Amino acid sequence: MHANEQLVRVCLAAISEADAEGWLASYTDDAVSRDVPLDSVWSGRAKLEAGVRSWLAAIPETRMAVRSVFADDRSGVCEWTMSGTLEGVLDGLPEQLA
């Protein structure tokens, strides 16, 4: 397993544990996280931190199941299934869903 594949898996496990600091530790300060279904992009440390904290506040019992991972020396992509109960407003979702 490529080291960056392991990093992606650790990152998603941190979300399932509601561990914002663990998730952030998986990213460099200039990283970009893109959530395609929500059309959400978090670019740079401040946006990454605000994004993950917002996510965990809106869906505190998030569970991530990894389906597939591709990672190389420059990037990583992951297909996952998420479950949880939306309890607050989350960037990219209509407010009436909360």
Class based on secondary structure composition and strand pairing: alpha+beta
Number of strands: 4
What spatial order of strands do you see in the largest sheet? 1-2
Gap between N and C termini: 38 Å
Helix content: 25-40%
Task: Give the mean pLDDT.
Answer: 88
- Seen as an oligomer or otherwise, the chain set is single chain
The largest β sheet comes out as:
2 strands, antiparallel
Strand content: 25-35%
Low-confidence residue ranges: none
Rg estimate, integer Å? 13 Å
Shape: globular
Helix/strand order, N-terminal first:
HHEEHEE
Number of helices: 3
Structure description:
The chain has 98 residues and is an alpha+beta fold. Helices cover 34% and strands 26% of the residues. It has three helices and four strands, in the order ααββαββ. The strands form two sheets. It has a two-stranded antiparallel sheet. A two-stranded antiparallel ribbon has the order 3-4. A hairpin with a 4-residue loop joins strand 1 and strand 2. It is globular and about 40 Å long. The relative contact order is 0.20. The mean pLDDT is 88.
Summarize this structure as a short list of keywords or feature phrases.
single chain; about 100 residues; alpha+beta; two-stranded antiparallel ribbon; about 35% helix
Secondary structure elements and their pairing?
Elements lengths: L2 H14 L3 H5 L7 E4 L4 E4 L1 H14 L4 E9 L4 E8 L15
Antiparallel strand pairs: 1-2, 3-4
In short:
This protein has helices spanning 3-16, 20-24, 45-58; strands at 32-35, 40-43, 63-71, 76-83. It is an alpha+beta fold and 98 residues long.
